Amino acid sequence: MRIAGITIPENKRLEVGLTSVYGIARSRAHEILDKSKVAYSKKPNQLTPEEENEIRKIVEAYKIEGDLKREVSSNIKRLKDIKSYRGTRHMKRLPSRGQRTKTNSRTLRGNVRKTAGTGRRKEEKK
């Protein structure tokens, strides 16, 4: 089964398989399956063509995949252009939602630091 150019994994339940589409998480997958009246536990290869088309129609109503990625990147670009605090944090590749940076956000900052020990030398064993 393909939705918005993404192949839904055949071996997973629909509620999990739908999350492989960017913009659909578990809660939205439940919402989609409730609207289309399909059981969460069904697998994509057990669907009838009518159920497949119903799910596809409901999913197309949401902003997903390329459109959503484009919107998110344009929102970030707007923040950078107006030089807002969040925009400058994005430019510097630092956390933009108020997290501390003294101890965390190592991967975002790109600092590959070794953990600091106590500074004492190990005593030799006798």
How many whole angstroms does the radius of gyration measure? 23 Å
The percent of residues in helical segments reads 40-55%
The helix count comes to 6
CATH fold type of the largest domain: Helicase, Ruva Protein, domain 3
Order of helices and strands: EEHHHHHH
**Net shape:** flat
Structural class: mainly alpha
Strand content: under 5%
Mean pLDDT, all residues = 87
Largest sheet: 2 strands, antiparallel
> How far apart are the first and last residues' alpha carbons, in Å?
68 Å
Low-confidence stretches: none
CATH first level of the largest domain: Mainly Alpha
Count the beta strands.
2
Indicate how many domains the architecture comprises.
2
Across the major sheet, the strand order is: 1-2
Give me the CATH architecture of the largest domain, please.
Answer: Orthogonal Bundle
Topology:
Blueprint: E1 2-3, E2 6-7, H1 14-17, H2 26-35, H3 49-60, H4 65-81, H5 85-91, H6 106-109
Antiparallel strand pairs: 1-2
Helix pairs in contact: 4-5
Walk me through what this model shows.
With 126 residues, this protein is mainly alpha-helical. It folds into two domains: 2-62, Helicase, Ruva Protein, domain 3, CATH 1.10.8; 63-96. Helix content is 43%, strand content 3%. Strands 1-2 form a two-stranded antiparallel sheet. The radius of gyration is 23 Å and the shape is flat. The mean pLDDT is 87.
